[in-house]
Task: inverse folding
C-alpha cells in the first residue's frame, strides 16, 4: 500500500501545490482545510504522517497537533508556518511535533523531513511489535529469543497450548524442552491445576511403575502405605514425561492404556481409577529409529506424536545468544551480589563463534562461571571457559558480520550497532557512547530518533 500523508492547510493554492509535489514523490495524499477536520480524519483513517500549517482559521496547527497525538502518539506530525518564532517552535516540539519547517518551504528539506518521519513511524511500529513479542515470550517461563526458529516455535506453542492434544517435544539435551512443556501448561486451560514432572530415565523399572501409577500398601517389599502415583497427582492438570525414550517396553503398554482410556491401576490394586490428565512427553532420541529397532512401541509413538514441537539447538539460533547471555548474567549477578553489567565485544564474539554442543544449558553454566570469576563491570574472554574462547574448531560457526549487514539501509545498521552495544555494556550509556565513538548527548538523540529510549 502507498504511504499516505495528510496535508492540512487552509490556503487552497498552497495545499494544491503540496498535493501535486507529494504525489510526484510517490505518496498518496489526503487533505484537510483546518485542524478540526484533520483531527476527525485521523480518527477515521490511517495515515503515515501529517503535514500541517500552524496558522489556520478554526483550529490552528498547535491545537491540532495536541489532539492528534492524544489519539495516536506514534503518528509523526510535521508543522510548517510562515510566521517562525522560537517560542512557537519550542512549544511544537515540546508537544511532540516530529519537525518544524518555515515557509517558503525548502522542498529538499521537506522531502527529507517526511522520509525521516515515516521511517520513524515504521520503526516505532516495529519496536512496539517487538516489545509485544517479548512481553508474550515473558509469559512463557524461560523461553527467550527473537530468532526465526524461536518465533516459529512460540507460534506453535500459542496455537497448541489451549487444546487438549498430546504433545511430543523433541530436541538435543540442554535445549530447554522442559521449559516448552511448562509454557504449554501455563497457556492451557489447565494452568490452575498441577504440572507434574517425571524423569523416565532417573528410576528403575519397578520404581518407575509405582511412581507413575501408584501402589497399594503391602504390594511389594517396603510399600508400608498406599501411594498415589503421578497420574493421580496430575489429575485435572498436566503430566510431563521427560526422557520418554528411556521408558522400558513393559511399561509402555501400561502408559498406552492410560492415554487411550484415561485409566490407571495402582500396583497391587484390583480396580482401575479414572484420571483426567494431559500428557506432554519429551525426548532427545529419534523415536522413529527406536521404533524401527523395536525399542519403542509404534502405537505409543503415534499416540504421543499428535503434535510434535522440535526445540532448535543453540547453534541454529545464534541471534539469541546475546539475549540469553544477558538474561543469565542478570540472574547470576543478582544471586552472587556482583555488579557485572555486560560482556566485552571480544567475549561476545567468542560466544557467537562457539557451537555450544551443550546448548542453552552449557551457555548458562558458562555465564554463571564468568560472573563468579569477574572482578570488573564487564565479562571478558578471560572469564569464559577455554573451550569457548579457544581457536575455532572445524564445524564451528564464524560470525559473518559483513554479510549480515550487506544491503541494509544505513539507519538500520546504525540502530543495530546502538542496540548491540547497549546490550553488551549492560545498558551503560556512557560506556556505549565511548565504544561507538560519539558523545552521550549524541547517543541520547539517536535513541530518541529510533524510539529506543
Result:
Amino acid at each position: 500500500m502507498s504511504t499516505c500523508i495528510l496535508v492540512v492547510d487552509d490556503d487552497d493554492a498552497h495545499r494544491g501545490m503540496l498535493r501535486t509535489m507529494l504525489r510526484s514523490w510517490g505518496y498518496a495524499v489526503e487533505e484537510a482545510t483546518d485542524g478540526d477536520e484533520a483531527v476527525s480524519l485521523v480518527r477515521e483513517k490511517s495515515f503515515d504522517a501529517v503535514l500541517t500549517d500552524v496558522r489556520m482559521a478554526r483550529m490552528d496547527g498547535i491545537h491540532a497537533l495536541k489532539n492528534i497525538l492524544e489519539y495516536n502518539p506514534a503518528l509523526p506530525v510535521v508543522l510548517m508556518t510562515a510566521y517562525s518564532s522560537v517560542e512557537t517552535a519550542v512549544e511544537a516540539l515540546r508537544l511532540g511535533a516530529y519537525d518544524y519547517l518555515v515557509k517558503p518551504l525548502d522542498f529538499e528539506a521537506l522531502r527529507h523531513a517526511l522520509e525521516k518521519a515515516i521511517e520513524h513511524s515504521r520503526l516505532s511500529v516495529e519496536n512496539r511489535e517487538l516489545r509485544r513479542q517479548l512481553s508474550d515470550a515473558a509469559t512463557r517461563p524461560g523461553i527467550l529469543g527473537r530468532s526465526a526458529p524461536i518465533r516459529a516455535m512460540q507460534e506453535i506453542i500459542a496455537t497448541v497450548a489451549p487444546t487438549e492434544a498430546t504433545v511430543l517435544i523433541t530436541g538435543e539435551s540442554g535445549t530447554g524442552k522442559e521449559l516448552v512443556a511448562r509454557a504449554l501448561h501455563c497457556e492451557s486451560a489447565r494452568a490452575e491445576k498441577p504440572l507434574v514432572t517425571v524423569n523416565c530415565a532417573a528410576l528403575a523399572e519397578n520404581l518407575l511403575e509405582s511412581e507413575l501409577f501408584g501402589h497399594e500398601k503391602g504390594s511389594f517389599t517396603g510399600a508400608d502405605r498406599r501411594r498415589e502415583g503421578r497420574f493421580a497427582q496430575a489429575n485435572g492438570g498436566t503430566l510431563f514425561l521427560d526422557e520418554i525414550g528411556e521408558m522400558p517396553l513393559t511399561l509402555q503398554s501400561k502408559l498406552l492404556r492410560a492415554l487411550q482410556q484415561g485409566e490407571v491401576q495402582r500396583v497391587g490394586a484390583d480396580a482401575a481409577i479414572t484420571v483426567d490428565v494431559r500428557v506432554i512427553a519429551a525426548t532427545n532420541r529419534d523415536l522413529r529409529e527406536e521404533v524401527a529397532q523395536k525399542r519403542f512401541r509404534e502405537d505409543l509413538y503415534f499416540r504421543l506424536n499428535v503434535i510434535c514441537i522440535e526445540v532448535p539447538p543453540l547453534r541454529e539460533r545464534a541471534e539469541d545468544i546475546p539475549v540469553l547471555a544477558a538474561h543469565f548474567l542478570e540472574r547470576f549477578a543478582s544471586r552472587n551480589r556482583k555488579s557485572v553489567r555486560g560482556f566485552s565485544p571480544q567475549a561476545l564474539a567468542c560466544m557467537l563463534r562457539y557451537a555450544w554442543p551443550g546448548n542453552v544449558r552449557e551457555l548458562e553454566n558458562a555465564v554463571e562461571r564468568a560472573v563468579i570469576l569477574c572482578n570488573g563491570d564487564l565479562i571478558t574472554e578471560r572469564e569464559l571457559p577455554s573451550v569457548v574462547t579457544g581457536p575455532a574448531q572445524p564445524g564451528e560457526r564464524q560470525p559473518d558480520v559483513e554479510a549480515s549487514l550487506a544491503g541494509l539501509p544505513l539507519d538500520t545498521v546504525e540502530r543495530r550497532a546502538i542496540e548491540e552495544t547497549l546490550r553488551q555494556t549492560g545498558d551503560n550509556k556512557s560506556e556505549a557512547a565511548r565504544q561507538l565513538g560519539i558523545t552521550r548527548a549524541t547517543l541520547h538523540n539517536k535513541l530518541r530518533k529510533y524510539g529506543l529510549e
In short: The longest helix spans residues 107-138. DSSP finds 20 helices and 16 strands in the chain. The radius of gyration is 30 Å.
